Amino acid sequence: MLNVYLSGEIHTDWRDQIAQGASGLNIDFSAPVTDHSASDDCGVAILGAEAEKFWHDHKGAKLNAIRTRQGIEEADIVVVRFGDKYKQWNAAFDAGYAAAMDKSLIILQPEEHDHALKEVDAAALAVARTPEQVVQILRYVLDGTLPK
Q1: CB 3.0 to 4.6 Å from 75: which of 5, 20, 31, 118, for a disulfide?
Q2: Would you say 131 and 18 are in contact if contact means Cβ atoms under 8 Å apart?
């Protein structure tokens, strides 16, 4: 069984594409909470309201970090997706954490991010452009099969 943590951008269905493409492979996928509102509001929903937005976000970030750290620490491979929209500082942080934990790291990003992510890419074992390439990497890692 290969444990793969899917981190990063939450506004597209890239995780579903990878899971569907890897159907039948011996892989257990995990991920952060991808419901943006739930992720933002988990801290105050569980631990109580905050008057200042900073502390609202701080509580949520800490609770999300529990899930993220566990997912990365238990993973054999970490895939971090950088999407087209939004500044994804959390994705960069997750990639750095995975690299520091000496996890096998795959970055999934569009070509236009190459320069901005050069240090992140240098820490990765692969930089993919599409979810299908990630699936092909996972298939190759599991059984040595190349795409047809």
Answers
A1: 5
A2: yes
